[in-house]
Amino acid sequence: AGAAMIETDVRLSADGELFLFHDGTGRRTTNIAEVYPDRADDPITSFTADELRRLDAGSWFGEQFSGEPILFFSELPAAVDFSLGINLEIKAPAESPGVEQALAAALAGEADWKRLAQQQPIAVSSFDHASVRAFHEAAPDVAVFQLVDGIPDPALLAGARWLQGVVANHLSLTAESAAAVRALDLGLWAYTVNGAESTERALELGLDAVITDFPGTLVERLSAQR
After folding, report:
1. Which of 6, 104, 150, 198 minimizes the number of CB atoms within 10 Å of its CB?
2. Distances, alpha carbon 85 to alpha carbons 6, 80, 140, in Å
């Protein structure tokens, strides 16, 4: 579809393996209610890696994806054929104690991730400021971004000179808040920009990157702009 990077969410299993999953439980996007009926609403991080591998994470999205398992962190570089950059969001770090250190160790120690890093950009982000800082301390050479839902707080950002940028909700971004981020010499990304009106507004802000569910549409728009 022409995307340069993908964004995904990282969590830690009960036995310490990194896996990629958005929701706090498996009920919405897996068959967990069938496989573990008494635990369907338990935190997804309370399951071991072997238990997670038993789940079907594809059928909810479409029959053609039936049987697709949850993807684990170690599998991601090969899954994108080493041809895409990766934006890793540390999801709900309080539910995955030690996830920052585990993520730093995996990025530095796994051969596939080292190979990907030689070819493509890798960034780590989180809404949790303390988690972003903890990861940065464990892996100071990896780019880190602060995720924000509202207007970026200049005071918070100014005190974190180790940040490479901000990933903001496009609905809350204004020309003024975008300029405030730029004044701190930080990169500015926005999520989740879908629809023609939102795209036009985002492009007017001069963003460095746009997270969208429809990258092909955005690429077409950018090509027409050139």
Report:
1. 150
2. 6, 9, 18
pLDDT tens, residue by residue, 176-192: 999 999 999 999 999 99
Do 129 and 158 touch, CB atoms closer than 8 A? no
What are the angstrom distances between the C-alpha of 216 and each of 84, 191, 212? Answer: 15, 16, 9
Residue 29 CA from chain centroid, whole number: 17
Per-residue pLDDT tens over the stretch 105-141 = 999 999 999 999 999 999 999 999 999 999 999 999 9
Rounded distance between C-alpha atoms, residue 20 and residue 69, angstroms: 11
